[in-house]
Records
---
Amino acid sequence: MIKIGWLFYKNGEVFLLNLFNNNTDLVKSINNLLLVGYYLTNIGYAIISISYWKQIDSIPEMLNSLSTTLGKIILLLALMHYNNIFWLKYLNKSKLLKSIHHGKL
């Protein structure tokens, strides 16, 4: 999960730079916040999952428990990722509409 967060951080910078007119200071700040949020979500979910774990008596039970836990966190992170993409696209679209309206294109 650490590698995935880092990949989102590095590759997402391109989209943020486009959205915020190459304002590198703002993009670095937003990108750092997104990365911290990603890691905190992972850590929080792991802690909550561990606190609700039941006693596991066999390897198949362990694999089932781990796959369920990983599946849930991956789905949660995917939903959060698509939510972020939606809002970034919305912001970018509203920026484009304002530019058209004010004759800046």
---
Amino acid sequence: MENQKPQWTMTEHSLLAIATEMHSHFRDLQSYYKIAKGNLLSKLESTSDQQEITAIQEDLHDVEEKLTFFHVLNNSISTVDTVLHTPKMITEFKKP
């Protein structure tokens, strides 16, 4: 049985570039949802209409859930991005 090393098959994008782009994207999404949460909290403080309060609270719940997911994704891909950019990993993934 032959043991062949797996090769990155996406020739137009390097693994390192994809990790860096994903890190940036998830960080930006996390910031976006932090701002969205702040905007919803401001709206919540400035309204007394119960129907509007309920709608804002539902939106806030959705935003908080997404914020949690993007926080986890951002932290995870940050670790991947950091490890992939160590000298040993750069050497490992350089094109032959």
